[in-house]
C-alpha cells in the first residue's frame, strides 16, 4: 500500500510537471506580456480620444477669445463706448451703427445668445440677444445692472488686448439676477474697450455662448471608445465643479454660484489635486476595480496659466479590460484540467503497475 502511494505521488508530480510547465511558460513569456501590451494600447486609445476632444475645446476657446478681442477693437465699439463715456459723438447714431454690426454677427454665429456692451459702472448700455430664431435688441428699460457679476469685475481691470473667460455656469437674468429655469449653461468671453488715450477701460464687450451644445459635443466625442454603460465621464470646471457627470446628474452645477449643493470632483477624487500641482497634461491610474483616465483642457488664461477644465473617465476594470478576465478564466480552467488529468493518469499508472505486479507475482508462484 505504501509502495502504491509513493508511485501515485511520483506519477502525479511527473504529469503535473509535464502539463503545467508549458502552460506556465506560455503564461509568463507570452500571455502576460501580450495582455499588458493590449492594456497599454487600450489606455493609449482612450487617452488619445480624450486628448483629441480636449484639443478641440482648446481651439474653440482660442477662437472665441480672438472673436471677443476683435469685437472690442472695432471702431464701431470704440465710437459707441466713447459716446457713452464722454458724449463726444451722437450716441444714437453710434448705437445704430454698432447694432448693425452686432445683428449681422448674431445671424452668422447662432451659438451666440447675447452680445453686450457694459459700461465701466457695470450697467448694460447695449444688448442684442437670441430668442429662438429671432434676434432681439433689448430696449433701454430692459438693460440690467451687472456690476456685481464676477465676470464683469474680473474683466473691467484687464489691460489692452487681454480677454477673460467666465466659468461655464448657469445663466442668470433679472434684477437681482436669478438662475433661469429651465437651466441654460452659459459661457462668457469678455474683453475691455479702451479709447485711444484712455488708461482705464471704458467698459467691456461680453459674448454669451450657449454651452449646451459644447457639453453635448464633448460627451459624445469622449464615448467613441467602449460601451458607455457603467462608465463615469466627468467634465469639470477649474474649481472642480461638475459640468457633466454621466452617472449622477444630481452632482452637476454644485458650486455656490450655481445650485450650491457642494458636489465637487476634488471631494470624490482627492488625488486629482496632487496631479494638478504637478502640471501634467494628463495621466491614467489603475486600481483594483477601476481605470481612471484624466486630461486637462488649457483655458488659456494669461494671468492664471495654471487654470484648466478637466475630463475624467472612470471605467470598471472588468469592462475596459474584459479580455483579461476571459484569459485568466481560461488559464485557470486549463490548470484545473491539467490537475484533473494528472490525477487520472497517476491513478491509471498505479492501477496498471498493480496489475503487472500481480500477474508477475502470480507467475512466480
Task: Note down, in words, how this protein is organized.
The chain is of the alpha+beta class and 365 residues long. Among the domains are: 73-210, Beta-Lactamase, CATH 3.30.450.20; 226-320, 2-Layer Sandwich (Beta-Lactamase), CATH 3.30.450. Helix content is 48%, strand content 21%. It has helices spanning 2-72, 75-86, 91-108, 150-155, 212-222, 265-268, 271-277, 317-320, 322-364, and strands spanning 112-119, 124-131, 134-137, 164-165, 169-170, 172-173, 178-179, 185-193, 203-210, 232-236, 242-245, 282-286, 290-298, 308-316. Strands 1, 2, 3, 4, 5, 8 and 9 form a 7-stranded antiparallel β-sheet that branches. Strand 12 and strand 13 form a beta hairpin. Helix 1 (2-72) runs antiparallel to helix 5 and helix 1 packs antiparallel against helix 9 (322-364). The longest helix has 71 residues, at 2-72. It is elongated and about 115 Å long. The mean pLDDT is 80.
Essential attributes:
alpha+beta; Beta-Lactamase; 365 residues
Describe this structure in a few short sentences.
With 365 residues, the protein is of the alpha+beta class.
Mean pLDDT: 80
Order of helices and strands: HHHEEEHEEEEEEHEEHHEEEHH
The biggest beta sheet is recorded as: 7 strands, antiparallel
Q: Can you tell me the CATH class of one domain?
A: Alpha Beta
Low-confidence stretches: none
- Radius of gyration, in angstroms, nearest whole number: 34 Å
Total number of helical segments?
9
Structural class: alpha+beta
Present the secondary structure layout.
Blueprint: H1 2-72, H2 75-86, H3 91-108, E1 112-119, E2 124-131, E3 134-137, H4 150-155, E4 164-165, E5 169-170, E6 172-173, E7 178-179, E8 185-193, E9 203-210, H5 212-222, E10 232-236, E11 242-245, H6 265-268, H7 271-277, E12 282-286, E13 290-298, E14 308-316, H8 317-320, H9 322-364
Antiparallel strand pairs: 1-2, 1-9, 2-3, 4-8, 5-8, 6-7, 8-9, 10-11, 10-14, 12-13, 13-14
Helix pairs in contact: 1-5, 1-9, 2-3
